């Protein structure tokens, strides 16, 4: 997951995009970038770091224009090097800049095909740069002459959907024309659109989450549909078209568990309300497994588990207490790069209030247990603070399968629940008891809030990859690439590329 935003405004957009990125910061902490469109020219600034650290006044001044895009990055492909920060730019046709949330699963093959067939060179290992080049090629193929119209753009997206596999929510600016936004045919990653009426005309903003629209005074219009493309020209006229043959909405369930902000509404379901429901369903399970008197107090692991823990306590008629205080200046640990940093940051981020633990049987609730970094540390902190018994509950089911759609967990061995029974995970995190949400209950938590949502991308829990192209070999290969040092990776990728090249021949 990354955060993306695209704007067509009637005044300067640099500050607007900056503010939107601040509201989307929870989706990516590694790099940030803004590109603006003024006349026929783009200006761009991007670097590694948080939004507040990346942009200085001089950088903001260098971003004039009334339309633009921005991104906060959490890398899933290539590396975290600054060259792979987004947006990406390509000069032909017309001049296009693009920002992407998601992960392509056939980017290596596309990279070769593009070189072989289209003579397009992609300079990084970023799947997003590949995506931009596919888009550019298809726009080139769909246009004749010097001008561009929305139907040509929609034709290009239609072909792109046929070539590209994986997840992609995209915002792109075409120099001198306007903003193109689209979502993959499964609608895996979120994307929504809002508007703002001004004296000079209507402004539009497309963003990963509704919180960006709402926080900046835009009115939520709707979610971008799976497979749909939207184009807003520089005068603020909006066009849209369904560009996929068989679109099927399968939003990522993990957005509702952890990734998105609770004050966002994704595909018609409030993330906050879904998390409350997760707490309610988890409470039902706990009621079946424990007797009254087993638990003295319920505590959340700040921040993301709060709504679930709160509702769970209410439904069990138990005290809800804040036993851990979060240092608000430390970012989200799960999306930090590297296990060493993640582990160190949990201790820096959370501190226990001992008096809340002394002699008590505590039920600690987290939204999820992924690598077990947080839960291991937290259980120990509860014990060190004098807890009599530590029961751990996860508002999501065990995370047992790699994610290939934009969450950086490509290797099975890093997942604490992979190859372990619940009892073994419980021992691993040194808890006295462990309760996981059931997968059906998780899905129901979201469907309860929006009954129109029936199907989900929940591969990390159930191993079902909705795009249908993920084989055991594919998973083995991405795991191999991740587990081996760079020169070995290059060999592996090179030999795979050679293989693909042979196939293309
Ligand atoms: O099992 P793990 O690998 O530790 O991953 C799961 C934990 O990571 C996340 O917290 P994070 O600190 O990222 O953010 P939050 O403050 O939004 O809860 C999530 O909320 C869990 O607490
Ligand atoms: N998490 C994401 O959405 C990542 C986008 C893109 N795959 C990258 O690595 O930069
Ligand atoms: Mg957390």
TrEMBL record:
Superkingdom, taxonomy of origin: Bacteria
Cofactor(s) required, per the database record: Mg(2+)
Active site annotation, chain numbering: 2
Glutamine amidotransferase type-2 domain ranges (all copies): 2-235
Pathway assignment: Purine metabolism; IMP biosynthesis via de novo pathway; N(1)-(5-phospho-D-ribosyl)glycinamide from 5-phospho-alpha-D-ribose 1-diphosphate: step 1/2
First and last residue of the signal peptide: none
Keywords: Glutamine amidotransferase, Glycosyltransferase, Magnesium, Metal-binding, Purine biosynthesis, Transferase
Cofactor details (free text): Binds 1 Mg(2+) ion per subunit.
Catalytic activity reported: 5-phospho-beta-D-ribosylamine + L-glutamate + diphosphate = 5-phospho-alpha-D-ribose 1-diphosphate + L-glutamine + H2O
Function: Catalyzes the formation of phosphoribosylamine from phosphoribosylpyrophosphate (PRPP) and glutamine.
NCBIfam families reported for this sequence: purF
Protein name: Amidophosphoribosyltransferase
